[in-house]
Amino acid sequence: MADDYLLRVTAGPSYDPSTHQIVSVNMPTPTKITSALCTASISVHIQNYRGLPHNSPSSSTYFAHPQHVHDQYSISFTLIPHKSIPGKSLLFGNDFDYPIRDRLPPGFSTALRIFKWAIDPGIDGDVYADKPYLYGNALSSLNVLQVGPKVDGDAKTAVSARQQEEQVIDEGGYEGGDKLREDLGVPDDAVARKKWFLGEQDRLEKWVWEEGRIYKADFFNPYVLKDKETDEVLFVVVLELLRKEHVERKEAASAGDSFEPKPDDLD
């Protein structure tokens, strides 16, 4: 049954599919998104990937890194905001434009309450709604957060070559970003940083996602980055499961060829 489907990953500056481009999964070149709100460079890694584009590798050197040998997927990104965003406002999470309540396993609501109590009290959402969602503050939700320098002028609309290289992102800062974290008292360790931002509210109040500053992040476990105060979306990543036969039929039509289903497709 799994062989009947292909996964397609797209990303864009809004929910509108016409603004999206196909993400080259497990490839070293990230997908670049530029809008009035930000410049972003997004990489998606999925272990045992079967999907589009057809030439996508099934894995990535990302999963050979000691920090990620047990991970199954990752969304990492470099972000340069084009306007400053309060720390309490930027959310990271996932949502759907259709109900999923009938597809949730028994006891899911209890499991979610335990997760919120024991792991991430900052997460909020309604998975039983007609348009379900789960969001958490980016500062306590992202597995890894690295703060870089401020950039000016043209650099705001073009991520530098250094940012475009495929790499495993480490927690911390560089070129002044480490000093910014230190001045605010943000712990160096990723787990400690997440817990720290789940503590006193004024810690979120003091943090600002600064206009023109480079931020790098990784989330190893489908996803939206948005400003909850204005409801503006910085970028959206969509993972979509497609029937293989439908993909092949559409590709044949685009090429002007006739489509003959394989015997397995007729089962």
Q: What is the approximate shape? A: globular
Overall pLDDT score: 84
Per DSSP, what share of the residues sits in E-state strands of 2 or more residues? Answer: 25-35%
Strand order of the largest sheet: 2-1-15-14-7-9-8
Computed over alpha carbons, the radius of gyration is 20 Å
Task: Characterize the largest beta sheet: strand count, sense, and whether it forms a barrel.
Answer: 7 strands, antiparallel
Q: Which class of secondary structure composition applies to the elements? A: alpha+beta
Oligomer: single chain
**Low-pLDDT segments, ≥5 res:** 160-164
How many alpha or pi helices? Answer: 7
Alpha carbon gap, first and last residue: 10 Å
Overview features:
267 residues, alpha+beta, seven-stranded antiparallel sheet, 15 strands
Protein architecture, described:
The chain has helices at residues 108-118, 138-141, 161-164, 177-184, 190-197, 201-206, 244-255, and strands at residues 5-12, 21-22, 31-34, 38-46, 73-81, 85-86, 90-95, 124-126, 133-137, 144-150, 172-173, 208-209, 213-219, 224-227, 232-243. The relative contact order is 0.21. β8 (124-126) and β9 form a beta hairpin. The longest helix is centred in the last third of the chain and has 12 residues, at 244-255. The termini are close together. The chain contains seven helices and 15 strands. With 267 residues, the chain is α+β, with helices and mostly antiparallel strands. The strands form three sheets. It has a seven-stranded antiparallel β-sheet.
